[in-house]
Fold this sequence. Notes:
Layout: H1 2-13, E1 19-31, E2 36-48, E3 52-56, H2 63-70, E4 76-82, E5 85-86, H3 92-98, E6 99-102, H4 114-119, H5 123-126, H6 135-147, H7 163-176, E7 181-185, H8 193-207, E8 223-227, H9 231-237, E9 240-245, E10 248-253, H10 255-258, H11 262-268, H12 272-280
Parallel strand pairs: 3-8, 3-9, 6-7, 7-8
Antiparallel strand pairs: 1-2, 1-4, 4-5, 9-10
Amino acid sequence: MMQNLLSNQASIRENGGRSALACQDMTCGYDKKAGVNPIITGLTVDIKEGESVAILGANGSGKTTFLRALNGVLPYLGSIQVEGKEVKTLKRKKLSTRMAMMTQMSNLYFSYTVEETVLLGRYVHTGNMLGIPTKEDYDMVDRCLEQNGLSDIRKKQIGSLSGGQMQRVFLARTMAQQAPILLLDEPTNHLDLKYQAELVEFLKKWKVGTTPSHQAGNETRNTLVGVYHDINLALQVADRFLFMKQGHLIADLTKEDVCKGDILKETYGIDVVEYMQKQLENWK
């Protein structure tokens, strides 16, 4: 059934738009004596500039591995291209000007303040880790701090923050990078309802270049690729849905097809639509 879903949706993807991210017969995983220990096998997909794509699947299906491969931090076979250039041939700094990734939990635990941490997102613009930030860099940091409700704690050490505050700091740092392709891995982790709602609105604005982290007159069609456990969030943000199972892409669907429920039941093993309807009864 899943192969039929893929073939039925093929024509939808042939929209003639410019490719932002493309994988061709891509296999990736983790180092095993300088080789590849496959987690994902034979994945082919073309994500167009301006699309908002949700990657969905059960735990262990390969979602985060896929994002890390796109970001150039995992070895892979086959091809991964960003804007027509092979990822493995690009220097890290060059790749970072085109693509930014926010992970589930950053491994940055140095004694930096909130402001200093967000300023790290400007690294690709200042030249190197010892580069002197400009007024433009600090202005961008100010906008990203304000966007994420962090201005009043800008001088706090990140080690003293709650999980939700830290998640917003890492989002602000990713925003400050100003890359046209944004990869998000579970962006609502640790966020309360208020900031989850604000994140949804930010992502909608970011896609069309109207957030405080964009310069006036920017006409770039930004591309968003996110891994989500929260299906409701994905439905609010994305217009294209990639479903993964055991390291394989099993469906590539529109929102209308997702809401029919068949693919959700196949992916998660339960009737998700029925489950959500039962949850709504608690609010009556």
